[in-house]
Write a structure and sequence with these properties.
- The structure holds 2 protein chains of 2 kinds.
- Chain A is built from 12 helices and 8 strands.
- Chain A has an 8-stranded mixed beta sheet with strand order 3-2-4-1-5-6-7-8, with helices on both faces.
- In chain A, helix 10 links the parallel strand 6 and strand 7.
- In chain A, helix 3 crosses helix 4 and helix 7 runs parallel beside helix 8.
- Chain A starts with a helix and ends with a helix.
- The longest helix of chain B is centred in the N-terminal third of the chain and has 18 residues.
- In chain B, helix 2 runs antiparallel to helix 3.
- Chain B is of the alpha/beta class.
- Chain B has an 8-stranded mixed beta sheet with strand order 3-2-4-1-5-6-7-8, sandwiched between helices.
- Classes of the chains: A alpha/beta, B alpha/beta.
- Chains A and B meet through helix 2, helix 6 and helix 9 of A and helix 2, helix 6, helix 9 and helix 10 of B.
- One magnesium ion binds next to helix 5 of chain B.
């Protein structure tokens, strides 16, 4: 359905070609295409606009270096700006505290339970930790069972209380349990919730208050559209989370939500999920994400041909 | 939500007292549509249609523009196929009526099946569920709990069993017991994984060995907060399973699910159900006009 980004830019680059200096006129068409590419990638409407405004400001009046054609310069400006917005070097998970307490949060089905398992696996196998998984989703059918199955697969203990319907007290009891049993990291899985669900948002705020986590992670589906900004902002306002986990990047989504979330809450993306298996986890690379959002693979090759 | 309201009031203000659709109106319209995940391409199509209609009808006031707008957007949503029942009470064209449910990971397939089982049961129909997600941790347990809630039998095998074989068993059992409706759950899968998509085609083909017309319906579940990637999901799942209807979930949140407008238009697949919560009752039969209305709320 969509004209590919490279086709669009090829067209607009023709306009830039041969001009020695980037001007208001020759940049307009390119920016329109960049904006459309961002919107097609699900970057938020307002953020796409701000982004292209910034790029325009940076581009106009720049003299084209002898080594670069105007179109190459534009690509460089767009790419650098995007990569910078996505954040610098990757930020590791904070493992201070004894035990370290890590709290998951996010919408329904975003991948919290799966990521809890992946993180436990990573900490156990790569960082010589002795993690405890905690089942605080008392709502979703078989949510506790799901975490137990993952724990069993990984050889990681799972704390749960089938009698209790109170996630706050389950989380508190789990930390006591961890101290008694020598678990140095406690990973608390929670139920999915909508940001507009007051009762559920109060609940997770109460869990935070009770267990005072070192890390609160916001787990978000990389296929999310325009709503990503609203949700991320609401969760951040309530929880002041420490980092973002971007899941399901093994799909073919451009993942513009990542840029939107970054811009709105200014928190680092710490890990990305790249599959359903317990080892399908990767650290986050801002440059790669920038390339992915803009389909930069195409653009770079386009510039090389130009 | 508040943001959407202010966008709409801006739109209304921009239109007020004007005799033609000027750039300001179109900019505001663009914002409403894009922020509802309608996508650039479909948004441009809608704007083109509006411009044409306005030139033709010589619209004068805001309320007329709003009316035209809603009509044009609703016009892009495909009509329900006449041979599939629209309502839970409606008579089924054939029994057992087999519904295969597909979609990417975590969109709400299993939950939607639980809700459908409840609705069909309430309407006096005998329902069987098939736990053909034998992959995801505790997927079978999850469906079994939904089966208990709705009071319907769930046919299952061990985790890791062949999903096509579970589907076969379920339909055979449903047929032997004169069930009216069979709903088959499948594991979530991303549409770019060729092996997993081929597996779906296989499950679908195996069903026909018991009921030649099965599946009578292939329901693709889309998460209402998904952005433009939903297009590719619709395309690839249709390729693998000939999707006949869409369900959009999680519309109780702030996301608008606007991407289905373009999907429904391009693939001519009607939206049949919407999910509005995690409870058994939180399912509605899709209503075009109401859906379009909420884009501007
Ligand atoms: N392909 C792929 N699937 C994933 C990834 N992460 C999670 N999933 C799948 O997404 C679905 C939902 O994952 P869960 O971990 O159950 O999500 P959740 O956030 O715990 O869901 P709720 O507890 O219902 O809110 C499952 O089918 C997972 O296997 C990923 O990185 N890639
Ligand atoms: N708020 C809300 N949550 C929903 C809705 N439909 C499903 N959910 C939730 O979304 C999460 C995922 O739902 P599932 O039914 O497990 O999704 P699935 O597609 O079967 O997931 P996989 O089998 O892992 O691919 C669960 O927490 C559900 O309770 C809905 O309409 N609204
Ligand atoms: Mg979970
Ligand atoms: Mg499921």
């Amino acid at each position: 359905m969509f004209e590919s980004l490279s086709e669009r830019l090829e067209r607009s680059f023709k306009i830039l070609k041969g001009e020695g200096k980037i001007s208001e006129i020759n940049v307009a068409e390119t920016l329109k295409d960049v904006r459309k590419a961002l919107l097609d990638a699900d970057v938020n409407f307002k953020i796409a606009k701000t982004f292209t405004d910034t790029v325009k400001e940076k581009a106009i009046g720049q003299n084209v270096l002898t080594s670069l054609k105007p179109n190459q310069l534009m690509v460089k400006i767009v790419h650098d700006e995007l990569a910078q917005l996505m954040g610098g070097a990757s930020v590791d998970i904070n493992l201070k505290g004894s035990p370290t307490v890590i709290l998951m949060s996010g919408l329904q089905g975003s991948g919290k339970t799966t990521f809890s398992g992946k993180l436990a696996n990573l900490l156990k196998t790569k960082r010589s930790k002795n993690p405890l998984l905690v089942a605080c989703d008392v709502y979703r059918p078989a949510a506790i069972e799901q975490l137990k199955v993952l724990g069993e697969q990984l050889g990681v203990p799972v704390y749960s209380d089938l009698e209790s319907k109170n996630p706050v007290s389950i989380a508190e009891a789990a930390i006591k349990h961890a101290k008694l049993h020598g678990n140095d990291v406690v990973i608390v899985d929670t139920a999915g919730r909508l940001a507009v669900d007051e009762a559920m948002m109060n609940e997770i705020a109460a869990i935070k208050k009770a267990i005072n986590p070192q890390e609160i992670l916001f787990v978000v589906d990389s296929m999310t559209g325009q709503d990503a900004v609203n949700t991320a902002k609401e969760f951040n306002d309530r929880l002041d989370f420490d980092g973002v986990i971007l899941t399901k990047l093994d799909g073919d989504t451009r993942g513009g939500a990542a840029l939107s979330i970054r811009s709105v809450v200014n928190k680092p993306i710490k890990f990305v999920g790249t599959g359903e298996k317990m080892d399908a986890l990767d650290v986050f690379y801002p440059e790669r994400m920038a390339d992915r959002i803009l389909g930069m693979g195409d653009i770079v090759s386009l510039v090389e041909r130009a | 939500s508040k943001t959407k309201e202010s966008v709409f009031s801006k739109l209304t203000r921009a239109v007020a007292g004007k005799s033609k659709v000027d750039d300001e109106v179109l900019d505001n319209l663009e914002e409403v549509l894009i922020t509802s995940d309608v996508g650039v391409e479909t948004t441009l199509r809608i704007i083109e249609r509006i411009e044409k209609r306005v030139a033709q009808d010589k619209y004068v006031n805001t309320s007329e523009l709003n009316g035209i707008l809603k009509q044009e957007i609703a016009g892009l949503l495909a009509e329900n196929n006449s041979d599939t029942p629209i309502d839970f009470d409606a008579e089924l064209p054939t029994t057992p009526y087999v519904i295969m449910v597909v979609g990417v990971n975590g969109v709400g397939k299993t939950t939607t099946i639980g809700k459908l089982a409840h609705q069909f049961t309430k309407a006096g129909k005998k329902v069987y569920l098939g736990a053909a997600d034998t992959f995801r941790a505790a997927a079978v347990d999850q469906l079994v709990i939904w089966g208990e809630r709705a009071g319907v039998p769930v046919i299952k095998q061990k985790m890791g069993a062949d999903p096509a074989s579970v589907a076969y068993d379920t339909i055979a059992s449903a047929k032997a017991n004169n069930a009216d409706v069979v709903i088959i759950d499948t594991a979530g899968r991303l549409h770019n994984k060729i092996n997993l998509m081929n597996e779906l085609t296989k499950i679908k083909n195996v069903m026909q060995k018991v009921v030649p017309s099965a599946p009578n319906e292939v329901l693709l579940v889309l998460d209402g907060s998904t952005g433009q990637n939903a297009f590719e999901q619709a395309k690839q799942f249709t390729k693998a399973t000939d999707v006949t209807a869409l369900a959009i979930t999680k519309l109780d949140g702030t996301a608008k699910g606007g991407v289905v407008i373009g999907i429904s238009d391009q693939f001519k697949i009607p939206v049949k159900y919407i999910g509005l919560g995690e409870g058994m009752e939180h399912l509605q039969v899709f209503d075009k006009d109401r859906f379009v209305e909420t884009l501007f709320e």
